[in-house]
């Protein structure tokens, strides 16, 4: 198991945000987590990447205990995070955005005397091509469209060579066409990385959920199964999707 | 982009390295004016530091005037001790009036010029390191950083005001005669200090320019734009912030060291809250996030200050305030931003003209 979680709990001001007894992820697995608002999905990712400290419980990543480690330590171990709101560096060019993300020595002196090598440039180009941003390389990231910023952020995470990518609502605010492109990109990436995706858009979930889907409700695990089983489960429909959810009707 | 920078550099060097000194030799520019610009160069050096920490990294530090004064007081203590020794006294005059008969321990190292030079750099760097270490580790950001550093500047100002601190209290330190054996009153010394300030400014600009164009500079911008994203990219943000904070403090200290011999006096008034705010305003007016803007802002605002205070002494603060409000409201990239915009409009106009004909 690449990732295994035991008895993880965190509460904010007395409210249990997350109480996850068990969760595990295989290597190179693409897992989708769904659940209504306040189900603890983003909180779970926050704990995995070290942004939020858990009250109790353990998270093992590659048999290393990561609960209690800092963001930088966890990032170095190989967990990369893509945020819900695109967070890129708007004042830097797309190329520089990618350059900063690439895996290399990141202390002050290496940065002061850094010279780009040919291998690195090739690698940056290769990733830019994967997310379709080669024509925009010299543009300021702040001038990109919302969708392009989402892809840039995915590229930033990919360049860190993470074993595990945490992707928070990658399809939020995208057009249908862009959503499909993002889904294809994630599927392609899942050949090389393990990925956890949080998503609301059911059509998008159907596109990418080739394996298991985890359903969280009020911070607890409701069920874990393939998308077709989850979609037809009465409890899921009742407490999350609702009978009148128009998206479900379409599917 | 490169061409435009070159124009800035040529104009700057032409005015300050050729025209002003030649004018002085020809008797058109007074020694006083030369000294005045020498002092402005010091402010510009400090402004470079503020631009690094605020313009590039997005950390508003309101205690740069304190670091400036640490450098100033160090060199002032050294020069005052030389005057005292020349007069055959054991302690400076102000200590005699305060009934201090033996030289305080903290003053003793400043008898040596070499140690003074070292201490003027090490003490501010150490202060900046300690302050920065505590503040950045506690994840203090944004407006809280500004408030805390401002409170710190205020506390230090109050400390330096007191006679018990043995640094001259409200009156500060003055009555300097020589620096490294050169008489400060000599025109030659004044010209040399002008030249030295100009050279240090150019050197500091060159180094800062190298820094912001390296990957280090890109990390600084990334910290300004999205601190969480850059730390998830496995950069240790606190190290970078601390490094740039110390560099900014060092620039301010070097500026302070060059400033005192050209001014002849240093008082705690140089490090009050207003002084730090003014230093930030130079950078804002010139154009933050742009090293040229910091230098131009510091030079221009101080030049305006000396013109305005002689023409209409009471209205300087209103004039400065007016410019500041205008800049914040309409020109957030400062003067350099305005020039850039005009340049772009001009080249676009030329292109259109060329396309028509």
UniProtKB/TrEMBL annotation, chain A:
One of the record's GO molecular function terms: ATP hydrolysis activity
Keywords, in A-Z order: ATP-binding, Nucleotide-binding, Transport
Any Pfam family: ABC_tran
Residue intervals passing through the bilayer: none
InterPro entries cross-referenced by the UniProt entry: AAA+_ATPase, ABC_AA/LPS_Transport, ABC_transporter-like_ATP-bd, ABC_transptr_urea_ATP-bd_UrtD, P-loop_NTPase
Stretches assigned to the ABC transporter domain: 3-243
Signal peptide bounds: none
GO cellular component terms, semicolon-separated: plasma membrane
NCBIfam families xrefs: urea_trans_UrtD (TIGR03411)
This protein's name: Urea transport system ATP-binding protein
TrEMBL record, chain B:
Keyword entries, A-Z: Cell membrane, Membrane, Transmembrane, Transmembrane helix
Record-linked NCBIfam families: urea_trans_UrtC
One Gene Ontology term of the molecular function aspect: branched-chain amino acid transmembrane transporter activity
One cellular-component annotation, GO: plasma membrane
Protein name from the UniProt record: Amino acid/amide ABC transporter membrane protein 2, HAAT family
InterPro entries for this protein: ABC_transp_permease, ABC_transptr_urea_perm_UrtC, LivM-like
Pfam families: BPD_transp_2
Predominant location category: membrane
Transmembrane parts of this sequence: 7-30, 36-56, 63-81, 114-136, 143-161, 191-208, 242-260, 280-304, 316-336
Signal peptide: none
Naturally occurring in which organism (per UniProt): Chitinophaga costaii
Membrane topology: Multi-pass membrane protein
Location in the cell: Cell membrane
Lineage of producing organism: Bacteria, Pseudomonadati, Bacteroidota, Chitinophagia, Chitinophagales
Keyword Lipid metabolism part of the UniProt annotation: no
């Amino acid at each position: 198991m690449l990732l295994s979680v035991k008895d993880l709990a965190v509460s904010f001001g007395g409210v249990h945000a997350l109480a996850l007894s068990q969760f595990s992820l295989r290597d190179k697995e693409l897992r989708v987590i769904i659940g209504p608002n306040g189900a603890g999905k983003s909180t779970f990712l926050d704990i995995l990447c070290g942004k939020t400290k858990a009250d109790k419980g353990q998270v093992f990543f590659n048999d290393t205990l990561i609960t209690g480690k800092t963001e930088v330590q966890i990032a170095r171990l190989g967990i990369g995070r893509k945020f819900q709101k695109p967070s890129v560096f708007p004042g830097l060019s797309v190329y520089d955005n990618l350059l900063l993300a690439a895996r290399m020595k990141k202390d002050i002196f290496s940065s002061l005397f850094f010279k780009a090598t040919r291998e690195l440039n090739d690698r940056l180009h290769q990733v830019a091509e994967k997310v379709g941003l080669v024509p925009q390389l010299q543009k300021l990231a702040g001038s990109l469209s919302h969708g392009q910023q989402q892809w840039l952020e995915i590229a930033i995470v990919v360049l860190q060579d993470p074993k595990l990518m945490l992707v928070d609502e990658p399809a939020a605010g995208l057009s249908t066409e862009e959503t499909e492109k993002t889904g294809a990109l994630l599927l392609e990436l899942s050949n090389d990385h393990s990925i956890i995706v949080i998503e609301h858009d059911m059509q998008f979930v159907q596109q990418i959920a080739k394996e298991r889907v985890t359903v969280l409700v009020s911070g607890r695990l409701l069920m874990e199964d393939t998308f077709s089983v989850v979609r037809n489960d009465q409890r899921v429909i009742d407490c999350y999707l609702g009978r009148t959810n128009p998206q479900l009707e379409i599917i | 982009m490169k061409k435009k920078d070159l124009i800035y550099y040529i104009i700057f060097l032409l005015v300050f390295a050729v025209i002003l000194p030649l004018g002085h030799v020809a008797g058109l520019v007074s020694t006083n004016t030369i000294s005045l610009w020498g002092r402005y160069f010091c402010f510009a050096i400090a402004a470079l530091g503020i631009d690094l920490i605020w313009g590039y990294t997005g950390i508003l530090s309101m205690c740069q005037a304190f670091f400036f004064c640490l450098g100033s007081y160090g060199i002032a203590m050294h020069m005052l001790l030389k005057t005292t020794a020349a007069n055959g006294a054991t302690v400076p005059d102000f200590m005699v009036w305060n009934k201090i008969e033996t030289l305080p321990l903290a003053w003793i190292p400043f008898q040596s010029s070499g140690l003074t030079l070292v201490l003027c750099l090490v003490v501010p760097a150490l202060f900046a390191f300690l302050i920065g270490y505590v503040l950045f580790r506690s994840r203090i950001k944004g407006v809280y950083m500004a408030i805390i550093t401002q409170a710190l500047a205020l506390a230090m100002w109050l400390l330096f005001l007191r006679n018990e601190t043995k640094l001259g209290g409200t009156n500060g330190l003055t009555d300097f005669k020589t620096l490294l054996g050169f008489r400060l009153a000599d025109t030659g010394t004044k010209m040399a200090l002008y030249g030295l300030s100009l050279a240090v400014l150019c050197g500091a600009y060159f180094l800062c320019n190298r820094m912001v164009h390296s990957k280090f500079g890109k990390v600084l911008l990334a910290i300004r734009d999205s601190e969480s994203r850059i730390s998830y990219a496995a950069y240790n943000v606190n190290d970078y912030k601390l490094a740039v904070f110390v560099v900014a403090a060092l620039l301010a200290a070097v500026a302070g060291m060059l400033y005192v011999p050209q001014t002849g006096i240093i008082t705690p008034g140089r490090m009050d809250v207003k002084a730090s705010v003014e230093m930030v305003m130079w950078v804002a007016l010139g154009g933050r996030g742009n090293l040229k803007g910091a230098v131009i802002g510091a030079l221009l605002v101080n030049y305006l200050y000396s013109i305005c205070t002689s023409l209409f002494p009471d209205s300087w603060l209103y004039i400065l305030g007016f410019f500041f409000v205008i800049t914040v409201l309409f020109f957030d990239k400062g003067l350099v931003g305005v020039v850039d915009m005009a340049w772009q409009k001009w080249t676009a106009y030329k292109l259109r003209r060329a396309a028509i004909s």
